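thread from #wetlab-drylab

HS: before we spend reagent money on co-crystallization trials with BES, can we at least see a predicted complex? here's what I'd submit
DV: go for it
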Amino acid sequence: MSSKSYIESNRERFLEELFELLRIPSISADSAFSGDVRKCAETVADFLKTAGADNVILEETAGYPIVYGEKIIDTNLPTVLIYGHYDVQPSVPDELWDTPPFEPTIKNDKIYARGACDDKGQMFMHVKAFESMMQTNELTCNVKFMIEGEEEVGSSNLDTYCKNNKEKLKADVILISDTSMLANDMPSIDVGLRGLSYVEVEVTGPNIDLHSGVYGGAVANPINVLCDMIAGMKDENNHITIPGFYKDVLEVSPEDRAAMAKTPFSLDIYKSHLEIDDVMGEEGFSTLERTGIRPTLDVNGIWGGYTGEGAKTVLPSKAYAKISMRLVPNQSSETITKLFTDYFNSVAPKSVKVKVTPHHGGEPVLTPTDSVPYKAAAAAMKDTFGKDPIPTRGGGSIPIVALFEKELETKTVLMGFGLDSDAIHSPNEHYGVFNYFRGIETIPRFFYHFAEMNK
Ligand code: BES
Ligand code: MN
Ligand code: MN
């Protein structure tokens, strides 16, 4: 039996097993769910064992465990290291979901649940593809699994784990499905990920909340000041004004930009999907360029003062914001965080005090298209989609990819099967049943081509 027909005859079970994972609210950001995150790690480990992996263990870290498992069939064959994550983003606000976030539901051939696409659905494709290759004698490479539980909170313990386990994690390629493709009939492979610099700012005015009539107009309102400071970080062309912000940005050649401009993309569909009348971004760049090759600065949350029911006349003592900057090659998150901090301190009026606290960061990556891993992934997608995939640059970040390159000296291939419209991190996250099975069918083809190309 071929892996393709094995997958065909096990469809129902493959879906039901994914549902089992999706029912576990493994939200890494919220400590109220720590028991569930751990339970999810154990469940992944059990599935790996059942699929046929050896030496499956929960590698303890200072945070959530990393699930490791392997199948070494022949040390002369190449080794594929699969990376994925079993943690998910918080589901809040739950009332915006049409079906409960942790009760997976299929509607219009899509699986609705938090983590359906990012990344349980995509990660689990690898477990099921591995099981299928084991059952049909199609495993052509050694395989190692490293499935972590802290990706959505910055992978802060993976660094140490990789440094301490270089030999164990030794591989010829790292294969990750945690990105999206252009469309179900338009396969693509992400060849770039943006980096990230994430900070939290605190602006303090008076030492206590004041009556906004008694003091208003005479004492700095930290919320007003914070808004001014944020507004001043972009000019009329939506260019970021932090001095030196663009200094290290790798300018993309006119040839590469011309190639990007050929990517099939409809701005009208994009706008109608988001129900917006217009897009907004840096002058002089297309939408795909704004997310693919240009850095950004976005406020992720802002708060302070009175937000409860009714009106309370208050001049607040403090204001806060969480701000993220997406980075492109060759920007460094450490440098950008420092530039931001210096700038924020320098523009603060004397009437307030400011504090900048850096959160996690991550470095941008670019992966080559003329490499064996890319070619094997492209050939695999060609087999199952009947079309050559298009190389694209995604706007998201997977900070550990740069780390893998540095610590493990191993290249990554980002063979993702999601769609940008899958609402990852949003209410009603979903993943196509088509995408799930297309992924499970494509992964064995990657193993096949990767082994062939390494002969
Ligand atoms: N899978 C995403 C990243 C992604 C999504 C890349 C779509 C390309 C296309 C990942 O789980 C994620 O959400 N990463 C975070 C960064 C992390 C440090 C919290 C992100 O991009 O915000
Ligand atoms: Mn992810
Ligand atoms: Mn994510």
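DV: The first strand starts at residue 54 and ends at 59.
HS: ok that's useful, forwarding to the group
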